[in-house]
Each structure stands twice: as C-alpha cells, then as structure tokens.
Amino acid sequence: MKLEFEYGTGKMAADLPDSTDVFITGETVKDPECLPQDWDSLYAATLESVRNPIGMEPLADLAHPGAKVVIIIPDIVKGGTQPTSHRRVSIRVCLDELFANGVSHDDVLLLFSNGLHPRTSVEEARQILGDELFGEFYDSGQITSHDSEDYEHLVDLGFTPQGDHVIMNKYVYDADVAVLIGHTQGNPYGGYSGGYKHCATGISHWRSISAHHVPQVMHRQDFVPVSTNSEMRHKFDQQGMRMEEKMGKKFFCCDAVLDTKSRQIEINSGWAREMQPVSWKMADKRTYVHWAEKKYDIIVFGMPTNFHYGNGMGTNPIQMMQALSAQVIRHRRIMSDRCVFIVSSICDGYFHDERWPYLRELYDLFQHDYMNILPDMNRYGEYFATKEEYIRKYRFANAFHPFHGFSMMSCGHLAEEHTSAIYIVGAREPGIARSMGLKTRATFEEALADAMRKYTGPNPNILALPRTFTTAAVHLCMKDPALNSAPVGGCPCGG
Hints:
Layout: E1 2-8, E2 10-15, E3 21-22, H1 39-51, H2 59-62, E4 69-73, H3 86-100, E5 108-112, H4 122-137, E6 143-145, E7 154-159, E8 165-169, H5 170-174, E9 177-184, E10 186-187, E11 191-192, H6 195-202, H7 206-209, H8 215-218, H9 231-247, E12 252-258, E13 264-270, H10 272-287, E14 288-292, E15 296-304, E16 306-307, E17 310-311, H11 317-331, E18 335-344, H12 359-366, H13 381-385, H14 388-396, H15 404-417, E19 421-425, H16 430-435, E20 439-441, H17 444-456, E21 462-464, E22 475-478
Parallel strand pairs: 1-15, 3-21, 4-5, 4-9, 5-6, 9-12, 14-22, 15-18, 15-21, 18-19, 19-20
Antiparallel strand pairs: 1-2, 7-8, 10-11, 12-13, 16-17
Helix pairs in contact: 1-3, 6-9, 11-15
C-alpha cells in the first residue's frame, strides 16, 4: 500500500503492508452534519442560541445603558478565519443584542484570550475578525489582547478550594457583562476547548495555568486517554467558577461545536457550568469516534513544519515531543501495550527563535544537569517564567510566554511513557531526535522493519493517519466500548 505523509512543507512516500488500516479525519467516518453555512442561516441559529441560553438569563437581559461589556475571543491558534466562522457570526449577533438593549458602542471591548500564547498581532486580529468588525473597533482602541504580565490589568482572586491561585484579566473582572466566544472542539488537554477552559487558560496568569499544565496533573492516570473527567478538567472548572464567584457575575458563553473544517454543527449559549455538558453531548458524536476493531501495534503519521502553534512546531524537539504526545492522549484507547509510532519529520532543529525564544535554552538544559526525563525540566519553571528577556518578547514581540514551554515538556513525556518506541523518519539532524529519546531511520520501510524485529513481531496491526496534523483531530476509540482503556475515575469515552 503506497501512502504519503506530511514532511516539512511537502510529503514523504511510504510503502506499507496491504493490511494497513487508514483513518482520515472527517472522511473515514463522516462528521455529523453541519448547519447551513450561509451567513443568514448561521446568524439565525446563533441568535436563537443567545436568546435561549442554558442555565442563565438571555444576553439582552444583562444589557442596559451604561453597561461595560468585554467580548472574549480565542486567538489565532484556535483557527477558524473563514467569513462565516463562529467568531465573526457570534460577535455580530452579541453586538446586535447588546446595542438593541441600550449598550453603547463605546462601552464594548474586544479582548483576545491568548493566555500564554503570543499576544494577537494587528494582522491576526484582522484575519480573525474580518475587515468589517476590525474596522469598527480598532481605530477607537477597542481591540486588545490579554497580557498575563500586565499587572495593572490583572486581579488576584485568591485560591480555589483545591489551592489553585487564580489571577485574571482586570478588563473582564470590571465589566458588567463578560461574553466568552468559544469552540467545543476536541482537545488533548481536558477533552474540549471552550467553556471554563477558555477563561482558565485564556485570560489568566501563568501561575494559574501552572496549577494544571504541569507534571503532577498531566501524569496522573486520569489524563491518558483524554476525557472530560480528568483532574485537569476539574481544575479548569474550579478556576472558572472562582472567577465568577469573585466577579459577582456569570460568564455568558456562546460556544459552537465544530466539524473537521471548522464549520458549526451546533451552537449553545449560557452558563458554562450547565452549558458545557450539553455541548459535549454533540461534540462527543464528532470527536470520540468508535471505529477501531482491533488494537494497533504500529501507528504511522507525518509531521509538517507548520501546524497548530505555527511554523517550527514540526521541527524543534520540544514541540515535536508535545505533538507526539497529543497523539498518544487522543488515541491511547486503540493502542496496544507494545505500540510503536513511526513519524516523518524533517527534524532540522529550526526553533523559530522569534516565536519561541526560550526553547533553544530549554533544549540545551535538557542535555545537562541530571535531566533524565522531560518533567525534570520543571525545576527550571520559575527561572524561565520570570526571566525578563523572555517576558519582554512575550509582551511586545509576539512570542510565546516562557512558561508555555513547560506545559509542552510535561505533555511531551507522555509519548515516551505510553509507547514502546518512536521512530523519526527522514530527520535532517537525526542527533536532535536521538537526544530526545527517539529512534531515527531514513525511510518508513526501514523503521517498520526495525520495529517488527524489535517490538511487534512480524505481523503487527498497523494504522496509518494521513493529515493528522492538518485537520481538526478526533479521539479514536474501539468500536466496542468495553475494549477501550478507560481513564481512572472516568468513562471509557467522552465525558
């Protein structure tokens, strides 16, 4: 069987056994039908949701003359820049409802919830919002981006019952109405984006995020495979509810369940605590795909240079490990206990220093100072998170916050923990892959032969995942749910 997998900016060919199973997201198993994608239809569906929210009063009832409103919007990392994206439609719907009920245009702020991601650039804001919305709010200074290091615009809310320190955006805290525009999309961290995950990661301080994006949470037995019953998910919810308690108001959420092409399947609005489970019911049908009839010994996929977090993610070693681990988290239910990954990547050591100025230093430190596994690097968390050079680049030069790298490393270790071996195929700098504990071979065929000889035997069950990083991912499950490996304390699939 001849297949092609992502490799740099192109493809690499592979000749795999004819018995290989192939899964392509959105094609092998079709997504649930999306809503009609014309503007008027999506506007009407969104308006219906906003006027009939779950667990709280409609947005119109929250609006009044003099009310200060902050509309919180996911950053460019979450994708969805088409003219009928959920962001654009829902922002317009919410604005129309607010203005019709007395809110002044001058009292609205559009806030990008980038968290520890790079602060949204002017061009990215235009891409996300479109020319009309951008032009309506930019010149008047009503578009900004969360800054987790701007202490004049942060509020310390104390601690959750679990002991997590909650520090949140002051614009949101001070607003009379806080609208969260989100996406209910499959996410290896806590099951789904949107809801309380949106505020807990998007408008908070790195110390709040360090309560959940760390080894003691990611390496719990309830984290792999992904579910909405993990300790991480509970921490998101607790932090979000702490924000609501101290603000004295609920977030008004408007979340869309999205398909492989970021099209709206369903739209739900309301109080996150009650709205999330409703959204997850539909999202589960798209995301937890009950397809596999056997456990797989070898999983084959490719890693492009540019995906999710941007150019360089498929080349620098820290981000590569995170990306590999994301596949483990999503697909652990269908992996045999001896499972091997075979992955094409140019792995040339391109770190994209402008976007991730600290990763090269992290990588170099990992080679020294008794750093035997990636979680050992967490000892340097405080040092990196408070290093002025990296903070300056996060605030003013569109770089990731330095603590972001530690969540990547905490996650990255899971690839090593849950596989027998990982082969990187076609590495231009194979020593980089080997320095992360990965094996290297020149071709898929060589890697497959070696894996069969050392780990799986001569007749492995093989799964190929073309386009795994270029489409919105799913969490693969066994067709018979009883055969899934379930997270501790959680359900075999979904929530």
